[in-house]
Structure formats: C-alpha cells, structure tokens
C-alpha cells in the first residue's frame, strides 16, 4: 500500500506506511506533564494500538487552548491527575483503527474533538443538544472510555493519563472513534487551519451562530479577546452585527481584534465606571448578546449586566474552574435577561463540522488571523509562555 500523501498547505507530506506500525506499540515523542504547572517534558513514550471502536492518529499539527493551561496548572484540585498528556486541538492522519470502526480508515485526514458524538445516546439523537452521554466534556476523565485503561505509557511501562478524550500533545494518540471527525474533502482548508476547528474557533463562532443566533444589525459585547472571544467576533461579524464591543485588560488585543470585526474596544482598567454602564451608553441600554470568554466570575457579572433588559442574552464560554456559583440574584432574571452556557459552540462535531469547514473554506469565517505563531513541537513550553503572556492567539506546534 502506498504511503498516504496529504496536502498540508505547504506542498505535500509523506508518512510512514501504516502497515509498518498497525497493531504494534509505537514509540514516539510526547510532551508529558508530571505535575501541576511543571514544565512539559518532551520524551519518548509508548502508544499502544487502538482497541474496539478506537482510532490511532498521527498528529500533524496541534495547538494550545486556554483550557489546557487551566487544567495543567491544576487550579481545581479534583482535576489533578499526573503524569498526563494534555492538548485537545489537532489535525492528523489516521494510522490505524480498532475493531468495529467503520467511519474512518487508514490515511483519512481528521481532526480531534473533545466533545464527541457517539450518534447513539439520547443527547446525540436530540437536535437541541450537542452533548454526548459517553464522550462529553469531562476534565476529570483520564482513561479510555471502553476499558478504563490508558493507551499511553512511559518507556518503562508506567501509565500516562489521557485528557479531554483527545491528548494531542503527542506524535501519535488514541481516541474513541466518536471523537474523530473526517475532514478530507469538500473544503479548501489547509491542515493548519483545520486544527483551529478542533476547539477555539468552532467554540466561538458556534456560540455566535448556534447558541446566540446573532442577528444582522445587532449589538454584541465580548469579554476576553483570546482566540475564543475573537472567534465570537468573527461569527458576529459574519452575521452582520452592527456594533461589536471587545472588552479586554490587555490593550494589545485591540489591534488584532479590529481585523476580526471588533468595532469598539473597552479596557476595564481605563474606566472609572463599571464596564456594563459604559456598554449601556454605547448601545442605548445594553447589547442584544454578550459573551463571557475569560473564565472570571466578576467578568461574568459585568457581561450579564451589559445585556439589554427585556431581551439581552449572555453566553458563557469561559471555563470557571474554581467552584463558584453564578454571581446573579434570581430576582435579576425578572428583568428579562437570559444566561446560557455554550460548549463547543453548540456544534455536533461529526454532524456539523464538515459543513462548517466548507463555510470557512469559502471565507465566511477568516481563519488565518488566528494562527499567530508556529513552533516545533519540542518548543511546547515556549508556546505556553506565549499564551500566558497574552502574546499568542493560537501557536501551532508541528512534529
Ligand atoms: N477582563 C477582561 N479581559 C480579561 C480579563 C478580565 N478580568 N482577564 C483575562 N482577560 C482576557 C485576557 O487578556 C485574554 O485576552 O481574556 C482573554 C483570554 O484569552 P486566552 O487566554 O487566549 O483564552 P482562550 O483560548 O480564548 O479561552 C478563553 O474560554 O474555552 C475557554 O478555558 C477557556 O476560559 C477560557 C476561555
Ligand atoms: Zn479548547
Ligand atoms: Zn452520544
């Protein structure tokens, strides 16, 4: 069988013949986290063959999302499980499949999704939800769903835990087939840009399109202008929102944000009055849609109050890892504001991503601006530093 050839945006690349590795344990590079906040150790690990309904993929590009940062730092005690391989945004190529997998085969181009779609559970069968009973988001889950064991181990045989159904900071990873979406036709996106659909861009654009259903001419406020917030901006711009107000404590974010649809910028540090009052002035009483993309509970309150009484909707995208309750008095809901959470932008990964990829390929959403840095995989610690310093949106790592 010939080696698969894949267009990667920079020509084509040739991979090892799958038959060389199929059914065998692979030794390859991975970035292993041994403790909360400890630098990643790039070392050789063992990746075991995929079991029933599992897929082993060779990662071509992976990128870092704020959720990797949050859980790696171990902000929430219960999320701590080490050693562990983080990472949940990636594009890659199927190396081999386990028993019973029919949706993908060796050589297919795929992206990893942390919010899987088994297609069979009560949620997957319901159009109203993109949850999945077995493969939904659970940062505490650290083993494979099928048999409760790990597919990774150290060279001397100690298990290494999984993360968010994906664990993409590894040259090869094993996922349940519910968490693998085939995206090798019907779009013109490069592999680099496909990586963005794994989490950040889909989450933000989907929140604007699916969760909020932003309408033309509307007013929008976005709190936190990282990749997720800016993807909301792209989604709102594509829907024809007339005012898109970006709120961020890092003024450098505004330059990039302008290119992605943000029309007004507020730095809370420069304001004497509460941010929601400032937004109310700019929008005749409040926005139609506000999006919380920081994971900060105080920001969530500002975001809620910046929505217009009577009809304003707040969408929560930030991961609030410490156990705090909503900063809202129940009576405040009588003002007619609504609040809702959005996971993976409301997209059902397998059902919706192929069409979304086509739309992105047609330029409905512009992806190129999201990739601000590219580094070799070995420099993963540097990539984390860039995110922590607020310098990167997405830093692509390549093997
Ligand atoms: N007020 C306004 N902006 C803030 C505040 C604050 N108090 N605190 C942080 N920010 C801004 C940061 O300056 C940064 O620009 O929020 C942005 C967050 O961006 P990233 O760190 O790039 O995170 P991103 O990947 O976009 O994820 C955002 O969504 O998926 C979740 O876990 C993720 O909670 C995170 C959020
Ligand atoms: Zn993410
Ligand atoms: Zn399901």
UniProtKB/TrEMBL annotation:
EC number(s) from the headed UniProt entry: 1.1.1.1
Highest taxon listed in the record's lineage: Eukaryota
Reactions catalysed according to its record: a primary alcohol + NAD(+) = an aldehyde + NADH + H(+); a secondary alcohol + NAD(+) = a ketone + NADH + H(+)
BP-aspect Gene Ontology terms: formaldehyde catabolic process
Domain called Alcohol dehydrogenase-like N-terminal: residue spans: 52-183
GO molecular function, one term: alcohol dehydrogenase (NAD+) activity
Gene Ontology CC: one annotated term: cytosol
UniProt-listed InterPro entries: ADH-like_C, ADH-like_N, ADH_Zn_CS, GroES-like_sf, NAD(P)-bd_dom_sf
Keywords: Metal-binding, NAD, Oxidoreductase, Zinc
Domain Alcohol dehydrogenase-like C-terminal: 227-346
Self-association state and partner proteins as the record states: Homodimer.
Family classification: Belongs to the zinc-containing alcohol dehydrogenase family. Class-III subfamily.
Official protein name in the record: alcohol dehydrogenase
Lineage start: Eukaryota, Viridiplantae, Streptophyta, Embryophyta, Tracheophyta
């Amino acid at each position: 069988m010939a080696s698969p050839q894949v267009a990667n945006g920079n020509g084509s690349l040739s991979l090892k013949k799958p038959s060389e590795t199929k059914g065998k344990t692979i030794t390859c590079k991975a970035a292993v986290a041994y403790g909360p906040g400890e630098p990643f150790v790039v070392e050789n690990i063992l990746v075991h063959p995929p079991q029933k309904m599992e897929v082993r993929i060779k990662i071509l590009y992976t990128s870092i999302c704020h959720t990797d940062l949050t859980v790696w730092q171990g902000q929430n005690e219960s999320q701590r499980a080490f050693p562990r391989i983080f990472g949940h945004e990636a594009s890659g190529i199927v190396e081999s499949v386990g028993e019973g997998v029919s949706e993908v085969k060796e050589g297919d181009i795929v992206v990893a999704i942390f919010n899987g779609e088994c297609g069979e559970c009560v949620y997957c069968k319901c159009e109203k939800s993109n949850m999945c009973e077995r493969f939904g988001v659970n940062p505490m889950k650290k083993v494979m769903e099928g048999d409760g064991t790990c597919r990774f181990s150290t060279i001397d045989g100690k298990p290494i835990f999984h993360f968010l159904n994906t664990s993409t900071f590894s040259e090869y990873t094993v996922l349940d087939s519910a968490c693998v979406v085939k995206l090798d036709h019907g779009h013109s996106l490069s592999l680099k840009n496909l990586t963005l659909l794994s989490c950040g861009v889909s989450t933000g654009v989907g929140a604007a399109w699916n969760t909020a259903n932003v309408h033309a001419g509307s007013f929008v406020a976005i709190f936190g202008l990282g990749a997720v917030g800016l993807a909301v901006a792209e989604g709102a711009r594509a829907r024809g929102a007339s005012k898109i107000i970006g709120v961020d404590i890092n003024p450098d974010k505004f330059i990039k944000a302008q290119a992605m649809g943000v029309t007004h910028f507020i730095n809370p540090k420069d304001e004497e009055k509460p941010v929601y009052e400032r937004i109310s002035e700019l929008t005749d009483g409040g926005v139609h849609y506000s999006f919380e993309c920081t994971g900060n509970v105080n920001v969530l309150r500002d975001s809620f109050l910046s929505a217009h009484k009577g009809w304003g909707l707040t969408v929560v995208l930030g991961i609030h890892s410490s156990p705090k309750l909503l900063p809202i008095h129940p009576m405040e809901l009588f003002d007619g504001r609504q609040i809702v959470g959005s996971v993976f932008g409301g997209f059902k990964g397998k059902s919706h991503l192929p069409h979304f990829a086509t739309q992105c390929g047609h330029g409905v959403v512009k992806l190129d601006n999201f990739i601000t840095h590219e580094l070799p995989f070995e420099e993963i610690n540097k990539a984390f530093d860039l995110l922590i310093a607020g310098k990167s949106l997405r830093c692509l790592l390549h093997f």
